Amino acid sequence: MSLIFLLSACTITNNTEFEGQVPIALKVGEGFINPIGYYEQNPRFSWQLPTTIHNNNDNLLGQTKYQIVAASQPDLLPSQADLWDSGVVTSAQSTFVDYQGKTLGSRQQVYWQVRYWDEQGEVSSWSDVAHFELGLLSNKDWSAKWIEIKQTAPVKLSNYGTPIHIPQHLRTEFELKTANSSTSANNTNIKKARLYITAKGVFEAFINGQRIGDDILTPGYTPYKKRIETLTYDVTAQLQDGKNAFGIQLAEGWYAGRFGPKRHWHKKLNLSPKVLAQLEIEYNDGSKQIVATDNSWQATQNGPIRTSGLYDGERYDAHYELFDQNVSWHQAGYNASNWSNVTISALEPQVLLQPKRHYTSKNKQLLPALAIKQVGGKTVFDLGQNMVGVPKIRVPMKKGQTLNLRFGEGVNPDGSLFTKNLGSAKQLDFYTAKTDGVIEWQPQFTFHGFRYVELSGFDSTVEPERSWVTGVVQYTDFDINGKFNTSHPELNQFQSNIEWGLKGNFLDIPTDCPQRAERLGWTGDALAFANTSLFIADSHAFWSAWLQSIREEQFDDNSIPVVVPNEVGEIAQAGWSDAAVTIPWDVYWRTGDKKILAENYQMMTRWIQYHQTQLKDGISEMWTVGDWLQPYSKREDSRRGETDNSLISTAFYARSVELTLNSAKVLSKIDDAKKYSKLLAEIKAKFQQHFFADNGRLQVGEQAQTAYLLAIGFDLLDAEMTQKAVPHLLATFEAANGHLRTGFLGTPLIAPVLDKIDRADIAFDLVFKQSYPSWLFSVTQGATTVWERWDGYTHDKGYAKKAGSLNHYAYGAIGQWLYDRVAGISPLSAGYKTISIAPLISTHLTSAEGEYKSPYGEIKSKWQKTDSGLILEVIIPANTTARIQIPLIEHTSLAKKSLLNQKENTATLFGQKVLVNGEILNDEDLVGQDKKSKTITVDAGSYIIEVK
After folding, report:
1. Do strands 402-408 and 448-456 pair parallel, antiparallel, or not at all (unpaired)?
2. Measured between alpha carbons, how far is 426 from 655 in angstroms, rounded to an integer?
3. Of 334, 476, 458, which is closest to residue 403 (Cα–Cα)?
4. Is residue 926 helix, strand or coil?
5. Is the pLDDT of residue 645 over 90?
6. Active-site annotation holds for 658
């Protein structure tokens, strides 16, 4: 009897019991739950199977068939679906099922249900009704015009020669149709009301004094010359009978503000913030009313937000607050007679207006101040965590006083704020009080990267309190999907640092850093970190949206910019621009979503075409900054690693071809697959012949760790040459006294490659090393995020001379290996339809665990050493299977660097006796075994595995 049947939980045969089971976690697209303003005209449906309890066992079912029904009204479900009835489909697919019904259009409301049949042929009850509503899908859906305040004088310029756009307040008033006598008051004659809105800049909207939504920095950051995202809000409840007021605040944001490299600031001189809004009201009698931005609106720049920019911060003066006889500017009845007219402009047909396709950014959590220190007449608050967002302040002030707030990631030895790593980003906020008393304030249209907040200018008669400052953490509104925890406190802190690096740099787009005058979507950083991020966060939609921006920014010569949205000009380079190929594959492999390959396939093939223009005799000469920030580099520009640039470029050329080949296979592009298969073989042969001698030693450039890691990690050497190259790779670690010597490109490959060549013992020693350079070195120096440089700060020397970012996620890419091989959770097929549970055990740890919310449900792997051996606890979700590689050994720490180059991994045996759920595991139950592990295949369920 095979184990897959032996360990399956008891099945349910009682039809009445099964009818109580329904599909759960219904989602559309990249994981959206009941979205409004959805972007996808041809949606994809996903659901999960439930867990049932029967005979005291978890009974996790498999699916053999499904049926989806979709309708324009919920009461038509399930029997009168007027949009689509899939019929009974024989398939185990429960993720990304394509809609095949009637054509859907803008504003369409869709209600849907699903049911499934289990492996015994029993049908479930119908799921609860899920729904989504499409946004405005085309520019033709808009009757509104872009509006902005009518300028009567030239816009003032800053000291940098960039325009200072004072935030605008814009407003209009309108009247609803009067309810007839058969309806009650309070807008009950309204069926629904939707606000469609976007900006060239960033906005907040209000109706009758109520803030619409809780997003920040909307609509976000895209290639504005190609596409601007739009938001949809249900504002039915905000409307009132009679007069209504509609107000919008508008600031410069990414679009019109000082942002990006100085050499491109001049491009902002002719830009100004604009807003586009369309409020559509539908009445119960079928009539409609539209309130749109047009030339009837009024505007002012005499509001309390005097300036606001992403780099420089926000200045608020309460004297300018817009009230008229206790009526606020965004309420009906406000006297706006002294406001200005607006200028209108038409929609540009070449700039697509499309619904936002990933989550907006929001205020996600609050961090209280942990400590206060007085330094030079100023008060410095320590939040205890490097974060990204804004402060929420509650400070006593005197009338006319101006509170000054400065932000920094660190402090100097005397406790004063450290700001040398900010470049020209001032990160300054100001608040001017109009009355005596405690003021409460939070900036609206900026963000900062900081751990410390410096205050000055408050009422000096009052002793500062920690409660005065709270950090408001802001990032894209996704859920945290994965957890990783071990018995090692420093490694746990590093995992926290990885997570905070993600939070700090996933604010609408993936950025390199969140604090200095940069904050750009560098592709190389993203390439390194994407896989790790896909475990930690539900970042599927986030990456899909950014990849659309990469497609839009691809140059006519097929090259890919190094920054997206492109703020740096026509620059492409190997190891950075290849993100256009690697990230679509990473997302597909972790989610199972074929659409991300289909959407990006043409971009991927075009990028390969560009690669081919950079070849000379089959070797790439594409420009690259190389293995960025490799420690101890001997190059003249020490930021650039020692690995030969042509080796890097050729390796990434091969990598892009391989992943495009894999994508062609998934998408059933047979001819392309044949072409790329042949091309890949040619590239590999040329790479090996050119860069490696017959003895496996690198023969071009320096003997750099990254050179060997790329060659072995990307499978660019044949099996014989790989074996010959291994001792030379290990020699590079021995030459470095058992330390890493890698930058952005090599670091993600260290542990996977060492694991691949059966030297996980070295990988573990590198992971747990605490001397410089190492992952845990920053932890020993007090880091709460991952740093740009391995030595960003040291207790004895202070901050690095070139003052790098202290919030840079690239080196956090080690997380992928920790989750895949220490916790032991990884996909064996795309999207975790089949799962690998294969933890590696090390003497550095006594326990480790991981949990991951896969598209099918939660996966868990937890191991703990015991006096008698090892216990491994595993949970596999419904509608999946898993291969569990049960470890029989633990990897021993290397005591001497000379052991690096020994022929075999150092390990000790736990035992050979294995029990699964209390039953002895026999050899006939195995699908594989060796001296290190025994492997079984299991159905969904819960398993306790003991090794003795």
Report:
1. antiparallel
2. 40
3. 458
4. coil
5. yes
6. no
| pLDDT tens, position by position, 827-885 | 999 999 999 999 999 999 999 999 999 999 999 999 999 999 999 999 999 999 999 99
Tens of pLDDT, residue by residue over 655-682, are: 999 999 999 999 999 999 999 999 999 9
The stretch 802-811 carries a mean pLDDT of 92
Q: Do you know the residue count of the chain?
A: 948
Alpha carbons 488 and 238: distance in angstroms, whole number = 51
So what's the pLDDT on residue 54?
A: 44
Given this model, what pLDDT does residue 903 score? Answer: 61
Q: How far is CA 561 from CA 223, 287, 554, 598, in A?
A: 12, 48, 7, 21
Beta bridge partners of 163: 157
Query: Which H or E element spans position 908?
Result: strand 907-909
Q: Which amino acid is at 115?
A: R
Taking the CB of residue 694, how many other CB atoms lie within 10 A of it? 9
Marked catalytic residue, from 229, 788, 849, 851:
788
Tell me the C-alpha distance between 508 and 361, whole Å: 6
Q: Is the dihedral of CA 97, 98, 100, 103 positive or negative?
A: positive
Q: How many CB atoms lie within 10 A of CB 881?
A: 16
* Predicted local distance difference test score (pLDDT) of residue 614: 98
Determine which helix (DSSP H) or strand (DSSP E) holds 686, and give its type and residue range: helix 670-691
Residues 94 and 65: their CA atoms lie apart, in Å, by: 9
Q: What share of the chain is helix, strand, coil (3-state, %, to 5)?
A: 25, 35, 40
Say if residues 393 and 402 touch (Cβ distance below 8 Å).
Answer: no
CA 361/CA 505 separation, integer angstroms: 12
Structure tokens at 210: 């109520």
Asked whether the whole model's pTM tops 0.85, one would answer yes
SS3 (DSSP) at 323: strand
Return the half-sphere exposure (C-beta side, CA atoms, 13 A cut-off) of residue 328: 14
- The verdict on whether 788 is a catalytic residue reads yes
Does residue 565 have a cis bond before it (omega within 30 degrees)? Answer: yes
Question: What confidence tens digit (pLDDT) does each residue in 228-256 have?
Answer: 999 999 999 999 999 999 999 999 999 99
**Cis previous bond, 396, omega within 30:** no
Question: CA quadruple 549, 553, 559, 563: dihedral positive or negative?
Answer: negative
- The predicted pLDDT at position 638 comes to 93
CA distance 619 to 621: 7
Sequence-ordered alpha helix ranges (H) in 464-565 = 489-505, 523-536, 540-553
Mean pLDDT of 679-703: 98
Catalytic residue chosen out of the listed positions 314, 518, 851, 890: 518
Give the mean model confidence (pLDDT) for residues 432-444. 97
Of 366, 176, 359, 179, nearest to 279 by C-alpha is 176
Instruction: Indicate whether 16 pLDDT > 90.
Output: no
For residue 697, the Cα-to-chain-centroid distance in whole angstroms is 39
- CA–centroid distance for 758 within its chain: 32
- 762: Cβ contacts below 8 Å, ≥ 6 apart: 730, 733, 754, 894, 900
pLDDT, tens digit, 9 for 90 and up, residues 570-610: 999 999 999 999 999 999 999 999 999 999 999 999 999 99
* Number of Cβ within a 10 Å radius of residue 368: 12
Partnered with residue 227 across adjacent β-strands are 352
**C-alpha span between 203 and 628 (Å, rounded):** 37
CB-CB contact of 530 with 514 (8 Å): no
Which residues neighbour 270 within 8 Å (Cβ) at sequence distance 6 or greater?
Answer: none
d(CA 566, CA 552): 10
User: How far apart, in whole angstroms, are the C-alpha atoms of residue 319 and residue 312?
Assistant: 21
- 455 within 8 A of 340, measured Cβ to Cβ: no
Distances in Å between the Cα of 746 and the Cα atoms of 488, 573, 642 are 25, 16, 11
Model pLDDT, residue 893:
83
Instruction: Annotate 205-227 with b (16+ C-beta within 10 A) or e (fewer).
Output: bbbbeeebbebbbbbbbbbeeeb
